[in-house]
Amino acid sequence: MSTTADSSPHDWQRPFVPHDCGAIAGSGSGPLAHLSFAVKDIFDIAGHVTGCGNPDWLAGHAPAAETAPVVLQLLEAGADMIGKTITEELAYSLQGENYHYGTPVNPACPDRIPGGSSSGSASAVASGDADIALGSDTGGSVRLPAALCGIFGFRPSHGRVSLGGVMPLAPSFDTVGWFTREANLLRRVGEILLGPDAAEVQASRLYLMADGFELADEALREALVPSLAALSALLGAPAVVRIGDNEGGLTALMLRFRTLQAREIWTQHGPWIETARPRFGPEIAARFDWARRMAGEAPRDEALRREHFSLRMARLLAGGGVLVLPSAPSIAPKKGLELAASQGFRDRTLSLTCVAGMARLPQVSLPVAEVDGCPVGLSLVMARGLDMALLGLAERLMAALD
């Protein structure tokens, strides 16, 4: 198969895709009236081709017959869709640098990456082009760009928000998430897309993820101290936990996550890749080749260990427990990282984000601090299904910090 593009990247800074994607007026009334939203280019819009970050995918697929239900929900709530945003190729990366369409600007620190794969959506919100943006989060693709761009990002409980009309990547990990610049709006979008939690449980106990903080740069850890103090004032002093200790360490947990994810990704996209022989940028080509190799190996105990891990996390967070951890291990890296540095950042990040992904938990990233003028995010995680409780806690914490 052809795995590399035959032209150099464009130097685009705007977050929106170059191909026709349409703008759609909302209902004109409702809780989100007079607000705008952008949509990652893996969500279907009726009458338009969903490009998924790759020109060969764009050229080889027909226009969508229907609009993704989650887009319709925002339109019915009164918000206006203003366009579709750049994503990394088939949403399989965390950097935010699309080989074909360029890197959407990180408005907070323009010489640095925005994070991906929902890079365009995060950039659109951070720049003020849109009030709300939809993204997807399979391995961290909302939480990381929210942290690096200095905005709010939410990954819901797996299965809580409809994935209809959204390109699948790894279905047992895929979620629809969203970005805003305000905690109140993040919660209001949740009221539209989530509805009420099944149980009325409030945040009541705080757990500090020590091994997660140990992964982060020292300057980032220090920058989060005031936010941790404010959180402790709300919930009490935290109990210190080490999430990776029963898993062979966070790195081992991350590698199980990557393996499970890769097998699902090749199942979804391998047949198209082998038939269409698409042009991929070098890093994405290597990632899909690795997914193909993982899919060809006999499964070990990764799936079973995932279920055991999920049960442990459910017990830890039952009844209102809140896990706190850094959203990212560092501030946004500079654009154009060498391969080894890029992989190192990716592995450290996934060692943080895989916790919620493996256990199917909701997680919110909050812009609470800066290091060297670049944003730093703090993440909160609650039990599966307590999404609105988590968004309510995020709003309370930001009010306390303000």
From TrEMBL:
InterPro entries from the UniProt entry: Amidase_CS, Amidase_dom, AS_sf
All copies of domain Amidase, residue ranges: 26-206
Record-given protein name: Amidase
Species: Hypericibacter terrae
